[in-house]
Amino acid sequence: MDTTKEYEISQNGTRLSYLGPWRITFDTNPDDCNMSCIMCEEHSLFSPLRKERIIKKTPHRRMDFSIISKTVNDAVKHGLMEIIPSTMGEPLLYKNFIKIIELCRERNIKLNITTNGTWPGLGPEKWAELICPVTSDIKISWNGAVKTTQEAIMKGSLFEKRLKNLQKFIAVRDKIGISSPNRCRVTLQCTFLETNVDELPDLVKMAAEMRVDRVKGHHLWVHFPEIGDLDMRRSKKSIEKWNKVVDRCNIAAQFVEGGSSKAVILENFNKINEDTPGMMPSDWECPFLGKEAWVNYKGDFNPCCAPDAERMKLGYFGNVIEEGGISSIWNGTRYRSLVANYKSNEICKKCNMRKPL
Fold first, then answer.
1. Which of 12, 124, 145, 285 is the most exposed place for a label (fewest CB within 10 A)?
2. How many Å from the N-terminal Cα to the C-terminal Cα in the chain?
3. Which residues contact 194 (CB under 8 A, 6 or more apart)?
4. Top-confidence residue, 220 or 6
């Protein structure tokens, strides 16, 4: 089959397919986490979802591995290049994680991981040995340049231990990179908050010192009223503060250690219009629609990574197992209509994931 006409080339060189997503995120185990980050939709101490699960003794949502394997086998024929296990829970706690690694090898696709950096069970070095050969990027959640900030935001985080574990992981990554054709990029991922914004430049510099490749962040989803004052988009004054920090972070990203000229990559450190608090610029684009897909623990197709309650408002698109595979939903009328008209959708107008492309 000639597939040369199925693909486009984006501005950053990523190979995209109209017939199917180039990357799929699977919500493998959203209820499994060993931390309680204050901004987390599911596991924050402020989360009503967490309290409700405890009171009702609701069984944890865990994806059957067959959903992953069937979806990958369908999508790989139409341009799938990469998969992401759960970003709402801790993916390394998923009981079938090793099977995901094996599936990536079998289907010649990459793994992309977001972890809280506790390295459950195996520790950072063993996990590095397992995942680095098949992983394009590992994003380690990190929200402070100093102990007090980090541990206040990410409840259960031990700052000094995390630093040592990050060093161990990167050392194994670098060793594997010498003999492997695949080099796993290491990213520190943060949420931009009033409580950490002033030390973001120091976080960027710390990343450079530790040979981290990239610092990626995003603005806060205000899931609960208790964290509303942490949103850097909440007022003209907070946006002015954020815009100044962006300049400082860009300077910090050029930090040079030991004669190295490699700068840390910054992602989503973009200035915002001070006159439109709470809204993203109308010309900023969705980086996901028509490119990536999400599948929840039951197999339901989701169009993006918005909080569950918000993305449900975008409509129901079908189940990847019940409707003949993800490619049929991807090319279906409901999803294509959203892709074409999302900028008129009230949820998308306020989405903090949109960016200048």
1. 12
2. 32
3. 229, 230, 231, 232, 238
4. 220
- Residues sharing a CB contact under 8 Å with residue 184, sequence separation 6 or more, in sequence order: 131, 132, 133, 135, 136, 137, 138, 173, 176, 177
Crossing angle for the helix pair 159-179 and 123-131, to the nearest 10 degrees? 30
Nearest CA to 24 out of 343, 353, 329, 336 is that of 329
DSSP string, 62-125: ---HHHHHHHHHHHGGGT--EEE--SSS-GGG-TTHHHHHHHHHHHT-EEEEEE-S--TTTHHH
Distance CA 37, CA 88 (A): 11
Per residue in 14-56, pLDDT tens? Answer: 444 457 899 999 999 999 999 989 998 888 888 888 778 888 8
Helix 236-252 vs helix 200-209: crossing angle, to nearest 10: 20
- Can you read off the two tokens belonging to residue 225? 């009223």
Token duo for residue 193: 């908050």
Residue 280 and residue 354 in contact, taking contact as beta carbons nearer than 8 Å: yes
Task: Give the integer Cα–Cα distance in Å for 278 and 88.
Answer: 23
